[in-house]
Amino acid sequence: xxxxxxxxxxxxxxxxxxxxxKNKKSVGNKYFVIYSMDNIETNxxxxxxSIGKKYGIAVKRNLMKRRIREIIKNNxxxxxxxxxxxxxxxxxxxxxxxxxxxxIIYLLKKEESK
Length: 114
Prior knowledge:
Elements lengths: L13 H9 L3 E3 L3 E7 L7 E6 L6 H17 L7 E7 L8 H16 L2
Parallel strand pairs: 3-4
Antiparallel strand pairs: 1-2, 2-4
């Protein structure tokens, strides 16, 4: 059974998101950028997904968020105890679920090797 990601795994406060981005530890490609920062307050990872209006209408943005959450839920073993901000670029709107998953997993592994 795949666990459900509860709200304690989400970063909601804009100050926390800005702090992670200002840390400037990131990996990216032409579709996504993943910012990360060590998390000493909790014993699990936390994440936030940022997607701009240039991506498309709200229905498409929400679909992309749901897909990324599903990818994170299915690949929890790859994720360290860090805070992550995943920025979705408008170029990613043509990707299917498998391509999104490959890109996110590749970037998480690349971030881990830093």
